[in-house]
Structures are given as C-alpha cells and as structure tokens.
Amino acid sequence: MKKILTLASVAGLCLIAQAAVADTPVLTVYTYDSFAADWGPGPQIKSGFEETCGCTVKFVTAGDGAALLSRLELEGAAGRADVAVGLDTSLIARARETGLFATSGVGESYDMPVAWDDPVFVPFDWGYFAFVANKGAPEVHSFKELAASNIKIVIEDPRSSTPGLGLLLWVKKAYGDGAAKIWADLADNIVTVTPGWDQAYGLFLNGEADAVLSYSTSPAYHLIAENDPSKVAWTFDEGQYMQIEVAARMAASKQPDLAQKFLAYLVSDKAQAVIPTTNWMYPVVMPKEGLPKGFEMPVAPDKALLMSPDEAAAARDGALEEWRTALSR
Amino acid sequence: MAHRAVALGPLRWTGTAAAVLVVALVLGTLAAVASRAGSGAALASADVAAVLFTLQQAAVSAVLSVALAVPVARALARRRFAGRRALVALMGAPFILPVIVAVFGLLAIFGRGGLLNAGLGALGLGPVSVYGFGGVVLANVFFNLPLATRLILQGWSAIPAERFRLAATLNAPVGRLLERPMLRDVLPGAALAIFLICLASFAVALILGGGPRATTVEVAIFQALRFDFDPAKAALLALVQVALCTVAAGLAGLVTVPAAFGPGLDRVPARWDGRGRGARLADGAAIALAAAFLLAPLAMVVAQGFVGLGQLPLQVWPAALRSLAVALSASVLAVGLALAMALRGGALVQVAGVLPLASSALVMGTGLFVLSHGWLDPGHIALPATALVNAAASLPFAFRALAPAVGRIEAAHGPLADTLGLTGWPRLRWLYLPRLRGELGFAAGLSAALSVGDLGVITLFAGPDSATLPLVMYRLMGSYRLQAAAGVALMLLAMALAVFWAFDRGGRGHAAA
To answer: Rounded to two decimals, what is the model's pTM?
Structure first.
C-alpha cells in the first residue's frame, strides 16, 4: 500500500514537473508590422521582458494601428490577444467603445507635453506630426504661409491612414470653423493624397513633392540611420499636432497579471530607451541617458496640440466632409 | 452544350464544382463579412460619387487600353524579328508587377520629378502634371495594355493559317474578312476584363488621382473596414462591385459576336499581307512606341532596385521561398479550376470566370478570416489563404486564356473524337491536353507571376515570421527603408518574369503568341 502511494506520488510529481516545463506561459501581443519587424522595437522589448517574466512573448501583427484595431474587433471577445500595442490617440474612442480592453493598472508619470490619466490605455511613445522637407529649400511656418506659397506637398488620406487623420484634426484643432477655408487654400499645394504614410514618404524622397506630412522625428532617422543630415521638419506657428501611441491589455486575456507586467515593462526605462532609434518616436519616460542626438525637441510644450479621444471622435466626420468637399472642387 | 456534356461525362461535374467553388468564395466571404455587426447603413452621397468615378475611370481606361492594343497586337502578329518573344514577355511585366512598384516606376518617367519633366524643363517648357483623372487612366493603360495586347494577339494567332493562305491566293482583303470578325469576337471580352480590373483598382487611383475626387469603391470599402469598422457597409459596397461586374459581363456577352472561321489544321500562320512599306513603318512605330511606354518605367524600377540590392535584409530569402510556394500553389489551383470550367462551358462558368476580378481582396480576406476564426490559427493559414485568394484573383486570366482554345479544339476535332468514342478522361488526355499545352503554360505562368507580386490577403493573417516578398517590401517601405524596398521590388520583378518565362516556355509546343 505504502509502495503504491509512493509510486503514485512520484508519478504525480513527474506530471507536475512536466506541466511546468510545457506550460511556460505565452503572452500574445498584437501589434503593427513595423513594431515587430527586425529593425523595430519589438525584438529587443521581447527579449528584455522574457528575461524577467518566465514567459514567451509571441507577436501577432497587422498592417498598422487601424488594421490592428479592426483585427481585434473582428476577433471580438474570442480573440487570442493578451495585449495590444500600437493604437493611437485617434483610435482610442473607437477602441474604448468595443469594451474589449481592461484597466491597465499601470500608473506612471509621463514626460509628455500633455497630461495623461487614461486608466485603460498606456502610452508608450509619442511624436509630433510635421511637414518634412529638404534643408535649404524654401520653408514655411504656418498653414497660411504654406497655402500662400507655391510649395508642393504630399499628404495622406485621412480615411485610410493615421497621419492623414492627424493632419485633418491638426487643421481642425488650429482653425475650428476656418478649417474648410484652409483646406480650400491648400488644394493647389497638394500634389496628391496617398493611402498611407509609406507611399507619401516615398513620393517625397523620389522628388515628387517639396514636403511631405510625416513626423518631427523623421529627420532624425535620416541623420542617425543613414548619416544624412539633409532633412528638416518644419514647425508651425499654429502649434504641432501630437500622436500618442498606446498599449492596452485585453479584458478577455487569461493572463491578466502577465499582461499588466508587460504594460509596466513597456514604460520602464529599459524598454523606453529602445524606442527612439527603433520606432523613431519620443519615449514617454525620459531614459536615463537622455535622447539620442538628432532628437532634440523642436517644439515648445505649450505649442503641442491634441484633441481628447472624445473630441477627436466628435470632430472627425464633419472635418472629413469639409476636407473632401474642399479638395474635390 | 448538350453534346459537350455527353462527351465530357464526369468531367462536366468537375467544371460545375469549380465554378460553384469560385462563386462561393466570392459571395460566401462577402456574406461572412456582412454577418458581422455594423450599421448596415445605406450608401452615402460620397459613396455614390465613388461609384460614378470608379465606373468612369474604368470605362475610359478599358476603351483606351484596347484601342491602343489593336495596332500593337497586329504589328506583333504579322512581324517576326529577333527578340520578339522576349519583347512580348517583357512587355507583359507591368501587368504582373506589384501596383505600388509600377506606380513608382511610372512616376520616375511621368512624375513631377520624372524624366519627362526634366526633358521638358531642359527645352524651356513648363512642367506637366500627371496627377488627376489623366494620371489614373495613364496608369491603368500602363498596367493593362500588355493584357489587352496579349488577348488580342491570341485572337490573331487563333485565325487558322489556311485562312491567310486562302486570302493571299485570292488576293482578298485580310482586314475585312479575317481581322475584323476576329476583333469583334475578342475585343468585348478584352475590354470587359480590363474594365473589371480597373473597377477594383485601389492604390493607383489614390496615388495618381491627386485627391479625394479620385475615390473608388475599393477605397470606400477600405475605409469602412479599417477606420469605421462597419463590416456591413463594406459588404454592401462589395456587393455593388459584384453587381457592376455581373452587369458588365452580361453586356459584354451581348455584344460579342463569335468569329466563325471554321477549323484549321493547327499550322503556324504565314502572312502575305502587310508587306508594303507603309504597313511596315506603322507596325514598327506601334511596337517601338508601346515598348518605350511599357519598358521605360520598368527600366527605372530596375535602376532604382540595383541601388537597394546591397541593403536587402536577410528575411527576403525565406520570404522569397514562401512567395514562390504561394505562387506555385495558386497557379496550380487557378489553372486547374480554369481548365475544369473552360471544359464545361455555359453561362455559369462565364460568370464565375469574371467574378473574382470585381471582388475586393480585402473583403475576401476579411471574410476568410471571419469564417476561419475560432477554429483555425490565422498564423497557420496565412500562406494557404493567400494562395487561395491569389488563385481566385488570377483565375479569370487563366480562364480567358483557356476557354477560347477549348472551343476551337472542340470545333476542329470534336466530331472526330466523337466518332472514336473518346469521352471523359481519355478525351481530356488525348484531345485537349496536348492541344492546350501552350495555353496551359501561358495561364500557369501568368497566374504564378501575378501571385508572386500580389500582396493579396497576407497582411490580414501573417505573423512576423510568415511574410511573403511583397509584404517584406511593404514593411520596408513603412520603415523609411525605401532603397531596400526598391531592391525587393527588383527581386519581385525578376521572380515574376522568371516563373512566367519558365511556365510559358514549358508549355510552348508550337509557335503560338
């Protein structure tokens, strides 16, 4: 009898041990392509988190932030995601409405020009939208100056790209009811409107336009990664519209603690130090060693423009119609 | 048809199944998307404007492509010169390139910073802008002139050699007696195919359209799915596309007048007409102009790509293998379905044979995603799903290459095969397959090449480790790495041409187009 008991307990121990090996938990992180790319922040953040979490991080990717949210919505509550990384301020209202996300439990004081106290969405990087041009070419420093000039620009479509939507909200925030007039005046400056940021930036680099709507950190990419100091981001007197990228954990996640730890890791010094030269955005928590050269803040904090998620959601459809009407003429 | 049904036996059912599968793929995925929550909103005025613009640009592009293709195809049909085959194959390249690559190539010639404006500037002339309605049409013609030329060229080579011989003997007008009936047979189908391709055009219209005026239905679908998350509206818009496609297919069927040349003896045509100096000059000019128009942007793609070859990231190699596997699977699937459908014939396959052209890849992919979600890991089915959607996308071209040839074989050799009691599989083995070698090779090559360059639905399914080559290119573009992306574009171009060449050559039994 005793023997049998011993045998049973040995077998039981073996089973438990086996289960422990087989059950290294997997944290499934949904993100956009360039975050998880070899050259993006994903690989370093994955290995950094895995050192301490006793888990494996698995990335599942969608094309961009909007595609990411669509995918999460398609999967609904039956989805496999534990954490979503890469939504942005213009998508937050829609994301919140889905009810798919849970309170983050992460409270950090962030180094951003605007205060952040959203209980669900955790910011992990941010940037300013800006027109990027070649140094030495004629520069302008406001939408009005731009509209009055002969400078040719490429912009992104607000119906299919986040920078495009950012520009739409930028003009709306800065000009309110006067936005339609600004768009009408800008119409002859716009060479074309592309579906996404990549095509617009490509057109600019190929000489199709004098400037492109991109980020204030774009010149830093050329400077640091390509040793090319020839690009400049214009600052506008109206102020510079912000994009804040956020992460959140899924309400349906079966590993809420691990998901919460990941979010906390994302805003830790170690992860934040990776952000600038992989995602080419500003970190939300200033790393100990500061920002790399080329990342000097071009914009005074009081010039930062941002609509709250609700404000942006309310303004979007009307602003879109103004934009479409003004540019369709 | 009753006769063919008897002769084919069980093969007929294969064709029916293939057609039903294609229709189910298009409409089933659409229904799956519609089944998801959404406003179900009716079309807004902006959507109606998008429908009108879509129809307008597609119609103008189709007519222009076909009109320009006629002289080029005639010139290629009656001239033999060194490098002709290579030229014909190379001129097909715009059609199989990823849209975005071709657009950048086109802009390197016609854009604000392109060679054309540099040339005009040197002459003291003002810059011309390619952006706007004209740009959209220019790009569509660039993409589809090769297809139109190829389809019409096939028509020419389908005129039995004996007819040209007879016409020469009688000194009869080849144009009126042979070419015009052939064109009346071929042109509506060619124009329809191009119209439908342009109906679903997305990136081109947006980039070259110059603004929101140039909004197509596909853009509205994209917006509904990505930014508004309104699947019901996306499905409604996709249904509008399918309806437009079906109506257009019906109209094209009405105006097509089958050319009745009667059977020939499978001989290579020799031509006695068009030997005058004027005809030679005209043919030379047509070929030279078309080649310049189609090849100059390609040359720019190649030139820009060479610079980027040194910066290719390591993952392009496994991605290239994946793309090859997807392309070969898609090609086998597309040609198999197309052959089964072509053998069956009838109204059902005519519709199924064009329907995928007007279906939205985004809706099809999203539908597959919805259907598979919950019981299949999207990461695992990324490549099969992409191959399936790519197969559907290239099926219409494979079908169009095979169907007329099957008809001709049946007309020429069917009665003899009947006398010999050749039915079912033996009929396929001994009657059709040997005579379809050229068309099968062409169809397989075209399907594989289209699939190599097609992003398809991979973005909806792929994880970081299962990217195809086009996806790697888009990812590079999305991370400032434009030169590396140009290098990948060159790889894509080379791969697409290589698979097309391999299949096309493998299939070429006799000197067809």
So the answer is: 0.86
